[in-house]
Amino acid sequence: MNDSKKLWLSIIEEEADTIPVTIGRHTSYCIMNDPIRLSFVTARYKFCSRMLSGMNTVLEIGCGDAFGSLIVAKAVKKLICTDINENMLNEAKDQLGFAENIIFKYHDFRESPYNEKVDAIYLIDTIEHIYPEEENIFITNLCKSLSKYGVCIIGTPNKVAEKYASEGSKKGHVNLKSYKELKALADKYFYNAFHFGMNDEIVHSGFPGMTHYRWALCTSPKIIISNY
Question: In angstroms, rounded to a whole number, what is the distance separating the alpha carbons of residues 85 and 90?
């Protein structure tokens, strides 16, 4: 007679030697205070992973504790995770050392381009934390870090949905953008840009004013330098 419990326990036993992963501080905070948010976060990273699948060298700006970065790392050959929080970056490096194709680097794009050209850059929930007066140098240095036909994915909350944001989110959101503002930014720095909206885990091309989250998928930066 078949025994489903015995079957299941035998399957679980195959995972017995797996060492549990320590989750970073930011993700731990979400689990304890707003666990449903993790479904939105992982969906955003999944979108980037699908768009960048198969690329050689990809760079993330503002990786935080890199919980979502693992999703993109599975889809690309090499992922460079950057952030300006050195402590969190070092913790992520220790916690996620099993991900062999991830390199953790401190870099501030307000100060300089990255020291090598990459095929793609993505930033999820980052541009809204950059003050408007810092934006030009930040995006300029980002563009200078891309190859000639490089791809840049910018994901950010929709400005028109700010009234639904938590007080904690509002405190850090100093540069929110509407669809029109994000489009203007993308058109200024890239030759091509494709725009999508997102509600919870669903990415779509619906009416921009009714989306909580905005994506700009950009290609071919207008600012290119051959050496630096």
Answer: 9
